[in-house]
Here is the input.
Amino acid sequence: PISSRRRHVGNRTNPNPNNCIGVFGLSLYTTDRELREVFSRYGPLAGINVVYDQRTGRSRGFAFVYFENVEDSKEAKERANGMELDGRRIRVDYSITKRPHTPTPGIYMGRPTTRRSTSPCYSRYRSRSRSYTPR
DNA sequence: GTTGAGCGTT
Here is the structure.
């Protein structure tokens, strides 16, 4: 008898139905625009997130598609899973992770609260900060 | 236009 109980939140192999689906095994050249063309026929989309590598700026080969309706995401998962896109077999599952946290550079990127453009000292600071390079 | 299992940055 199977005594192990499935967690209500699901796991990596058994994601729960969700508005967001993850698309994996993508070609590096599949863009969000192409994904929109493919997945929009299952229902209205709320958004698409192709995951890019921070260093190279290229796609990491997977993306997240947000549907407005859960039933649409269910159909998309069923029908788009295993389909070929840009010559690659894609895998479609419900997303398990949450939305990405926007990483902060570690330095203050906003505008100064006290702006004194008339100050020559400040203008000198401005010109220097423009050439500032992190790390 | 490398590959290629993966669940999250511009």
In short: Strands of chain A lie at 20-24, 45-52, 59-67, 84-85, 88-89, 91-94. Chain A has a mean pLDDT of 78.
